[in-house]
Amino acid sequence: MSEKTTKGQALQKELAYKKVNYFEKASAEEKRAIFDYAEGYKAFLDAAKTEREACDTSVSLAKEKGFTEYKFGDPLKAGDKKYFINRGKSVVVFRVGTKNLEEDGFRIIASHIDAPRIDIKQNPLYEADGMAFLKTHYYGGIKKYQWTAIPLALHGAVVLKDGSKVNIRVGEEEGDPVFYINDLLPHLGQEQMGGSAAKLIEGEQLNVLVGGLPFEDEEASDKIKLNVLSILHEKYGMCEEDFLSAEISAVPAFRARDVGFDRALIGAYGHDDRVCAYPALTAVLNNESEHTVLAMLVDKEEIGSEGTTGIQCKVYEDLMEEISLALGASFRKVRANSKCLSSDVTAAYDPNFAGVYEKNNSAILSCGTALCKFTGARGKSGSSDASAEFVGEVRLAFQKEGVVWQTAELGKVDAGGGGTVAKFVAMLNIDTVDLGVPVISMHAPWEIVSKADLYSNYRAFLAFMK
Ligand code: MN
Ligand code: MN
Questions:
Q1: What is the pLDDT of residue 450?
Q2: Per-residue confidence (pLDDT) for residue 382, from 0 to 100
Q3: Which of the four, 152, 173, 324, 342, has the lowest number of CB atoms within 10 Å?
């Protein structure tokens, strides 16, 4: 083999595009940073399994960095570090920059902190044949069969008869009991296994096993249910009727763990979309740019961004208007000059299911955070489709800071699709593009991401805000 580079090889290097594996490209120091950053993320995942907990955990981290609570009407000045809490389920963490807000606009990163899960119904508790169960209604797009036969934890809030609120979190601490959704033994599964996977387990079979010990009283009826009620009363002061005004969710009781002999990957519940929310948060907390930067950590993305805590709610627009007002700027002018990264996960190319991907335009694991110019389904339906000009601008910012990144599409054109919060931000006259971490087994109870892609996402956010 000749050592000399041929003309064709030189031209290839100059003209052709090739993705790079970030682990391969990173210096020893950067590699250390990749692994160190993952430790903080794993701690965040374990502390923040629901949107309420993600909101609280984000606020705690912000407070540690000297951020204080902002309420509509509060005065603001350059250098202020603030967080705005929306109903305990979403939070906007922001820092006021030194640049003229009307001319410079906001730099926004929007991510979501809700994740697919199994919600408990309003009248859930019943007893049947030696067991007590809670009826459920699943939240978000799940493969129902994946949620059976795994340890589950219960998280949530209950508003009691007197209006006071108690928080529930059982199944996370060492020594806590966990909960469970029954599946059928294979010996009797002949009919079940012959049907479609969508019907392996049906919605009304997703009942959470919560007890088996009868209350000690010969005269009482439904003794297992009664015993569960007495424990709930003792622990939380609640009666059965209090389930009516409760929000309790069953989530996988697994903790975030390193995956692989080399620890390159992280397995966890809820990477979608905390793998973007955590970098968004930490990028704002550690940011010292001249721009006014916002990390919007919103709720309800998994069910269409609806309600008072989803990004379609006017509260986020109101907040940006209030910030503009407090800084003496016209919101119309501010938003016209604002830019947003809508940061949500994308599907990582999986060689085990190669048939649903178009490889050249899929996100390859560890090749960095993935920019999706458009999302949507079929003919880009439901996508905000960012302009070449804006993508070019973002590309330049990444290039300047040496960010390893790639572009991606969710799957083959006709294979399905998806969308996220980008289009709702774009509606405000704010240039917006999707950027997020590739995930293996998205929406499964335990998902996989690469530590390199997590860190690339963080670096991309810092570059975007610079
Ligand atoms: Mn998502
Ligand atoms: Mn999702």
A1: 98
A2: 82
A3: 173
